[in-house]
């Protein structure tokens, strides 16, 4: 399979499309956690109770899906090969928990992969909407549309005082997790990020790496999300996060301007050295690739590099993950083989872009 065809089949819309403030915000995600009334929660579920959840969702989609998102096809986790599951996790379409630890896990995907509905994950139902750029309000609207459609036929576990009941107490209330993925090299290079992180935490938000809890912020990419879901409305949670993200966008742009004024030649040298590594390496590990891709993306955004699109970072950060590399290769690869494949894929992707 050619790389171009592979990318066209593998890349979700949030990776390849621009959105508001997409020079800094790669994506916006809304996730709603829901459970069925009078059905055992997944953490202590039996096979029968997990099957009851599957049946309830199957009955709902049998009556048709919202035309904006449909068709939504149910896929069972146990019917998918391990490598395919890994790719879905790398694309942020399903969680590692659903891929590896769920009982009777399943999921539904929209054609453009903006909407993902996970079934029998940590909660019975987890609705996810993933949009390019800073589009939290739009993603919330889409998630609520899916939620309303499901709730027409499914009775949720809901308490008048506490709101939606969830497996984890931190999700009780709205059941909402709102998050944005941000590229913040300016704040990292000017050594401001270590001061900003504690301030963000004090505002009730949490900062993680590209794959959420426990992951490293490779390539200067940070995921920022709310921690509190109880006592606030969905709109208030999203507005609070948008406010912090807007400040970070402003601070990142100021940091980039400062670098251009005080260290322009050094920054330009860093960008083109990283570009040279990506363009010519025959072996490259994931951490080095992420760092170089971040530098090149910064160079594109600041106008040093003219013949590459900024979506190349979004794409290659995903396409060079272990699952994707092995899918492109057609089978399992040792770590050293992945490093060789990663370098080759990056070279070919850059060549494909610059030859257009």
Q: Which secondary structure elements does this structure contain, and how are they paired or packed?
A:
Elements (H helix, E strand, L loop, with lengths): L2 H8 L2 H4 L8 E10 L12 H16 L10 E4 L5 H9 L5 H6 L4 E4 L5 E5 L5 E8 L3 H16 L6 E2 L3 E2 L11 E8 L1 H5 L3 H10 L2 E4 L12 E6 L7 H29 L1 H17 L5 H16 L9 H9 L2 H8 L5 H20 L2
Antiparallel strand pairs: 1-5, 1-8, 2-3, 3-4, 4-5, 6-7, 8-10, 9-10
Helix pairs in contact: 4-13, 10-11, 11-12, 13-14
Structure description:
The structure is a single chain. Helix 10 crosses helix 11 (286-301). The chain has helices at 3-10, 13-16, 47-62, 82-90, 96-101, 136-151, 185-189, 193-202, 234-262, 264-280, 286-301, 311-319, 322-329, 335-354; strands spanning 25-34, 73-76, 106-109, 115-119, 125-132, 158-159, 163-164, 176-183, 205-208, 221-226. It is globular, with a radius of gyration of 21 Å. It is α+β, with helices and mostly antiparallel strands and 356 residues long.
For the structure shown, list the relevant keywords.
single chain, 356 residues, alpha+beta, 8-stranded antiparallel β-sheet, two-stranded antiparallel sheet, 14 helices, 10 strands, 49% helix, 15% strand, globular, kinase, Gln_synth/guanido_kin_cat_dom, ATP-guanido_PTrfase_AS, protein arginine kinase activity, EC 2.7.14.1
């Amino acid at each position: 399979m050619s790389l171009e065809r592979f990318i066209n089949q593998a890349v979700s819309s949030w990776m390849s499309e621009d959105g508001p403030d997409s020079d800094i915000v790669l994506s916006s995600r809304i996730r709603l956690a829901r459970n069925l009334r009078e059905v055992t929660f997944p953490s202590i579920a039996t096979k029968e109770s997990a099957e009851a959840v599957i049946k309830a969702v199957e009955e709902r989609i049998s009556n048709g899906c919202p035309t904006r998102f449909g068709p939504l096809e149910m896929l069972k986790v146990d019917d998918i090969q391990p490598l395919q599951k890994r790719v879905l996790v790398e694309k942020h379409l399903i969680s590692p928990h659903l891929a590896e630890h769920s009982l009777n896990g399943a999921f539904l995907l929209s054609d453009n992969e903006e909407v993902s509905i996970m079934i029998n994950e940590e909660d019975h139902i987890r609705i996810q909407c993933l949009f390019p750029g800073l589009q939290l309000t739009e993603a919330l609207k889409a998630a609520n549309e899916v939620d309303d459609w499901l709730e027409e036929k499914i009775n949720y576990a809901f308490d008048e005082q506490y709101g939606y009941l969830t497996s984890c107490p931190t999700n009780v209330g709205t059941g909402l997790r709102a998050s944005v993925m941000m590229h913040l090299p300016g704040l990292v290079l000017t050594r401001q990020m270590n001061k900003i992180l504690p301030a963000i935490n004090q505002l009730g938000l949490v900062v993680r790496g590209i794959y959420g809890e426990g992951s490293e912020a490779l390539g200067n990419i940070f995921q920022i999300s709310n921690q509190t879901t109880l006592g606030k409305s969905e709109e208030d949670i999203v507005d609070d996060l948008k406010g912090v993200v807007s400040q970070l966008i402003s601070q990142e742009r100021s940091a980039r301007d400062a670098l251009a004024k005080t260290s322009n030649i050094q920054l330009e040298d860093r960008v083109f050295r990283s570009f040279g590594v990506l363009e010519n390496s025959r072996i490259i590990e994931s951490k080095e690739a992420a760092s170089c891709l971040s530098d090149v993306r910064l160079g594109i955004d600041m106008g040093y590099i003219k013949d590459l699109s900024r979506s190349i970072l979004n794409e290659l950060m995903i396409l060079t993950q272990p699952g994707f590399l092995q899918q492109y290769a057609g089978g399992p690869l040792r770590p050293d083989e992945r490093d060789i494949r990663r370098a080759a894929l990056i070279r070919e992707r850059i060549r494909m872009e610059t030859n257009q």
